[in-house]
Design a protein that fits this description.
By secondary structure, the chain is an alpha/beta fold. The chain contains twelve helices and twelve strands. The strands form three sheets. It has a six-stranded parallel β-sheet, with helices on both faces. It has a four-stranded parallel β-sheet with strand order 7-6-8-9, with helices on both faces. Helix 8 (about 165-180) packs parallel to helix 9.
């Protein structure tokens, strides 16, 4: 028979199984027994069957496609997450659509609409710094399409989330600065629109409180994550009559930019001012001095988020639960706080 004449129906009839079982076996879905999958693949090869994604989607009402929306690809965090998540999706027989919104709400909305148009079976999302309205993601819920947030999450939506304990991690970062003898610690915070910014700020405040150090609003600057502004913020902090001797930054790019600015102003790191970042980006261990930072389990986060999404996609909507997975962080001590 000609290859174009063979359909999923033909394979299903010959093996006496359902059409959905055949389509799942052809796409590597984990719910299909190994014996059945092997029989389907062997018959498909024997008959020279050519898989047709469109016909599969018509039968199963699925496209075998998953969407991932991230805010940016400038830092190493989101590319690493995507690589880890995509590996899990590929092993399960799914294709992945990836988009980044360049930290803008409008582009995020457009990306979400594109995902809906392409009829993704599920979606992973980390929010942009501008996002305060979530209707474009609630649209997925209304259509019964599962959504899992990671890192930058929407606290207003009762859906699964994969995060780290940002409060505890920030507390550890500031506690480390205090342990090295620093008493006047500044904080370059993230946008208040992001829950992770608020939690890291609170962790900073609670660490000061525990060790009886005053909270000084003049030492806290909320950044919009525009790196070109960091030099202005650092100069403002160091030009104060009583400048800080420690700095906790919202993320590693901010911390690295701060280090460059501090060095240009002729200050010594960590003697005059020690610096701690957050994320453990690739560049953090290569900058001089190397950056003390909070390491997040990025690969694990990508794997856990995708597995959680796949699990939801295999269940009836009535059985979905808003699970929150909290992963562990680790303080990586380097030369920006302690000279080796």
């Amino acid at each position: 028979m000609k290859s174009h004449q063979i359909t999923i129906v033909d394979i299903a009839q010959r093996l006496n199984v359902s059409k959905s079982t055949v389509s799942r076996a052809l796409t590597g879905h984990p719910s299909v027994k190994e014996q059945t999958r092997k029989a389907v693949l062997e018959l498909a090869e024997e008959l020279d069957y050519q898989r047709n994604i469109s016909s599969i989607s018509l039968i199963t009402n699925k496209t075998q496609t998953i969407g991932i929306i991230v805010p940016e690809f400038i830092t190493s965090f989101f590319p690493r997450f995507v690589i880890a998540a995509q590996e899990v999706a590929t092993q399960a027989g799914y294709n992945v659509l990836i988009s980044q919104c360049n930290e803008t709400y409008e582009t995020e909305v457009a990306n979400a609409k594109a995902m809906l148009t392409n009829r993704v079976d599920g979606i992973l999302v980390s929010l942009s710094k501008e996002t305060r309205n979530f209707d474009h993601f609630k649209a997925f819920q209304k259509k019964g399409i599962p959504i899992v947030f990671f890192n930058r999450v929407c606290e207003d939506m009762m859906v699964p989330k994969v995060v780290v304990d940002d409060h505890d991690a920030a507390f550890k970062a500031v506690e480390h600065l205090i342990a090295t003898g620093k008493k006047r610690i500044a904080h370059l915070a993230g946008p208040d629109s992001l829950a992770i910014s608020r939690k890291r700020h609170l962790g900073y405040k609670d660490a000061l409180k525990k060790y009886n150090l005053p909270y000084d609003e003049d030492l806290v600057i909320a950044s919009d994550l525009t790196l070109s502004k960091i030099r202005i913020y650092v100069k403002h902090l160091l030009d104060q009559d009583n400048p800080p001797d420690g700095l906790f930054a919202f993320n590693d790019p901010t911390a690295i930019e701060a280090i460059q600015s501090i060095k240009q102003m002729g200050r010594r790191i960590p003697e005059d001012i020690a610096v701690v970042g957050f994320s453990d980006n690739y560049a953090s261990s290569f900058i001089e001095p190397s950056l003390t930072t909070i390491a997040q389990p990025v690969d694990e986060m990508g794997q856990v988020a995708m597995k959680l999404l796949l699990d939801l996609m295999d269940k009836d909507v009535s059985k979905w639960k808003p699970i929150v997975k909290i992963l562990n962080t680790k303080l990586m001590v380097r030369n920006s706080t302690v000279r080796g």
